[in-house]
Amino acid sequence: MQGMHISGSESASVSPSKSRAQKKSWYADVLVWLGGFLLLTLSVICITFLLTPDRSIGDLSQGAAASRHTSASGVSGGKSLGTDVIEVVEMHQDTIKEGISDGSGIITHSSDKGSREKWEHGTIEYPPTLHFPPSVADVPEELPEGIAYPQYRPLLDILADWNPDIADPPSHFTETIQHFDFSNATERAMAATFRNAELPFKVYNVPEFEEVRQKWTDGYLIRQMGTNSKVHVEKSDTNHFMYWTGRNLRTRTKKTSRDTRQPGTSNSVESWEAPTDILRDGEMMFPEWLKIAKNADKLKPPSVNSTHFYFMHSSLKGDQGDTFIARDLRVFSSGLKNFFIVRPDLNKGIQCRFGMRGIIAEAHYDGGRNNVVMIKGAKRYILTAPDQCKYLNLIADRDHPSYRHSTIDWSDPVAAKKNFQGATGIDTIVRTGEMLYIPSYWIHYIISLNYSIQCNSRSGPPPEEEGLEDIDKCMHDDKFKNKMRKAHGRRKRKVY
Asked: Range of 22's domain?
């Protein structure tokens, strides 16, 4: 019993230090185990990174070219992209896989006589499908007689047949722009040949855009923008809206007072007057604008000499989900190379314009490949090639608030007859679910036929700067011509 007592006393006096030693030993074992596990995990990740092919989007015309902005894990701009985004962009397959190559083979089937489609205003007639543009044909002399693209018409005839101040389309409208089913891989490859040739075309059945079209109900848009005062709303006493920016005014002489730079007032130096009023933040919210736009569709007031409001909202470059526009239009905002955004590094964000019946956006050009998708409603686009700029009296002064825009009122028959003798153009209606590709430097004049939502995104000029030389001849602002920029790793070139 005494031995047991001594043993118990020794045990009581020694066990705390032994316990601490055992705990330290256990902690050390755990740390060693965790360190080994982390080292093994990092090794696996590194090996996987090295062995996994790039997940950037394959360009339709040049195969699976890797995007400089996308890592192997599908991370773009520092943000992780969901698998749905990766799947969306990877559906854009290479043209070669579809048996389509630029300029060779049969350009169109002799049995293809085009198609006709009914819509709410009557019928629209579409031309036969061309597999590639005639201008890139390997053997031009083997092309069928009369094949040409684009098919231009005298601009005076286009305007006389359907005056831009009339929002209602004719009962029968003939399209001349190529029209491709994007969900059909072969037709999608055909569309790529026109994109690569810097020629206008339209696509439809784009799954990403169809989802947005169904999602953007009135209720959804009100939830997203109903209380947002940081939107852009312009007011015009007519149906004409000439773009202008106050940024250019800040570069003018200091003699120009603050008051003369406000909307609706004259510039004392240049005798310039803002063509529209820009409403203050919160002065008109989206629900109020939507009600006005819907009423215009019901009442159909005359476009001329009546007040119109143009509602705009945008997603800035680099926005990968901060706004609902960027979240929903991921094919534009992902930062990944795809059919629409071929140079993500030159992407300018997403601009959405909510038009009401009769609104005219005056003619202008943009310096980047422009993808215009119609989410709701319909708009009429009159396009002219860059070499037609000589007829349009574009504002060449880069310091002018409406730089790049035509000063001619296209809806005025007298002004049109005076200026457009010899000018040619293309007339097209872009309807819900369609996307219009406007090549760089092409001039476009836009008419909203009803309540419409149009979103567009640009991604810089093409590699060969098609159209720039023609625009150069029309723009005589030497100050701006001397500004150069680097493009595609070559010497700096002029851009407008």
From this structure: 1-51
